[in-house]
Amino acid sequence: MTYPTIGIERMVKTVRLLITGGAGFIGSNFVRYLLKSRPEVSIINLDALTYAGNLESLDDLPHDRHKFVRGDISQRDQVEACADGVDAIINLAAESHVDRSILDSSAFIRTNVVGTQVLLETMRRRKIARFLQVSTDEVYGSIETGKFTEMSPLYTNSPYAASKASADLLARSYHRTYGLDIVITRCSNNFGPYQFPEKLIPLMILNALEDARLPVYGDGLYVRDWIHVEDHCRALEMVLFRGSPGEIYNVGSNQEMTNREVIQRVLDILGKPASLIQNVTDRPGHDRRYALDSTKIRHDFGWTPLIPFDQGLENTVRWYLEHQAWTAHVRSGSYRHYYEQMYERRSQTLANL
Ligand code: NAD
Ligand code: TYD
């Protein structure tokens, strides 16, 4: 794909990217996507390999243009060690699960806030040309009707969302104060291959496969706008190479569904009964609905999502069926402990009601 020579392409012929969080769900998909779509790109992939990061998600990637470094974005020396010759930083490293942020927000502040500040400082000191902060629709909070635009106020309801909003504000401040070339994307709920099975869709796929219960928080009528991770990756590429400094771009797919509808579609694909669904205690501060107005990225770059929800979901279910070794590995150890802690507690609370 060729683009007009703007953004970082204006300055460099070959592009050296520092991608953080590249062993996670979106990060590993984005690294894979870029290596395929952009022959001029070489990538340093900095990831702490927390419970959510997995080197097996990168197994099939070539080593000549992709170098993995284990490191923590909140540690300045570890980030500095990766900064030589870097043209742009793409920050995907994060603690990303709302329920975990409710159990304990410390790691969210450390990685999402302090980590982003460390990366921004590195950009400033090392005169790195561009910074893409990968953010989320959750920074806007919940909306009953209508859609959030890039001008909507930040109004967060979970510690996760608050930490992401803090990072966005820091990024903006580095643009305004130091004139740095920073762009921000805010995307809706992603699904697809390599997603850690604590999030709704992979959790439901894997539980249904094992005929285990499917825990639905509250009345299950919470609405999310689901986008396939590959459509998000294309949006990230466009903003990285063509976005205007200081701008924010919403990325949504207009595929709104209640959680119950999503779960029913998973059950239909797998031919499993609805009796697996079990209502459990709601998430505190649970956002009722997310919805984004993505006119700006559609208008400015002609971006549009290409993968319809049903098709993407079928492919995703097939991917989990075909990658059971990956799943078994990421679900072992500390994940099992988290799962028991999270869902045992929910059923106990439910029993006490
Ligand atoms: P993920 O949890 O799957 O992956 C996060 C990655 O970051 C993991 O590989 C982890 O090891 C790494 N990491 C965590 N702490 C780190 C640290 N201190 N230093 C270096 N690496 C660290 O998350 P994801 O779903 O891939 O999300 C990626 C980004 O996209 C996040 O910033 C998230 O807020 C944003 N986002 C996610 C969604 C979604 O639906 N998943 C939607 C919009 C935006
Ligand atoms: P999640 O995948 O955690 O994403 P987010 O909270 O960032 O939107 O959850 C998506 C929706 O599914 C959210 O409304 C919470 C709900 N949910 C359940 O009902 N049961 C579950 O076991 C999980 C993980 C989520």
In words, what does this structure look like?
This protein has helices spanning 25-37, 76-80, 98-103, 106-126, 159-178, 200-209, 229-242, 259-270, 295-301, 309-322, 324-331, 334-352; strands at residues 15-20, 41-47, 66-70, 88-91, 130-136, 182-187, 189-191, 214-217, 223-228, 248-251, 256-258, 277-280. Mean pLDDT is 94; it is low at 1-6. It has 353 residues and is of the alpha/beta class. Helices cover 42% and strands 17% of the residues. β5 (130-136), α5 and β6 (182-187) form a beta-alpha-beta unit. Strands 3-2-1-4-5-6-10 form a seven-stranded parallel beta sheet, with helices on both faces. A three-stranded mixed beta sheet has the order 7-9-11. Residues 98, 189, 199-200, 203, 215-217, 222, 224, 259, 283 line the site of thymidine-5'-diphosphate (TYD). The site of nicotinamide-adenine-dinucleotide has 30 residues, from α1, α4, β5 and β7.
